[in-house]
Amino acid sequence: MPQMAPISWLTLFIAFSLTLLIFNTMNYYSVLPKSPEISQKTISSDSMNWKW
């Protein structure tokens, strides 16, 4: 399709970029992070003994 005008390629690029940005933002904000109480775990010293 080399007969297409450059303004058409620019329009397609802008439309694709906006679609990509909107899709990525919707995916990023659709996931709720876990609460910090669940994600924090204390590491006991017994589990750190390496048996090599």
TrEMBL record:
Looking up Pfam families in the UniProt record yields:
ATP-synt_8
Q: How does it sit in the membrane?
A: Single-pass membrane protein
Q: What are the entry keywords?
A: CF(0), Hydrogen ion transport, Ion transport, Membrane, Mitochondrion, Transmembrane, Transmembrane helix, Transport
Quaternary data? F-type ATPases have 2 components, CF(1) - the catalytic core - and CF(0) - the membrane proton channel.
Q: Where does it reside?
A: Mitochondrion membrane
Cellular component terms per the entry's GO annotation:
mitochondrial membrane; proton-transporting ATP synthase complex
Q: Which organism is it from?
A: Amphinemura longispina
Top-level division of the source organism's lineage: Eukaryota
Q: Name one GO molecular function term.
A: proton transmembrane transporter activity
State the name under which the record lists this protein: ATP synthase complex subunit 8
What family is it from? Belongs to the ATPase protein 8 family.
For the keyword Transmembrane, the answer is yes
The main location is mitochondrion
Q: Which is a GO BP term held by this UniProt record?
A: proton motive force-driven ATP synthesis
The yes or no answer to whether the keyword GTP-binding is present is no
Transmembrane parts of this sequence: 6-26
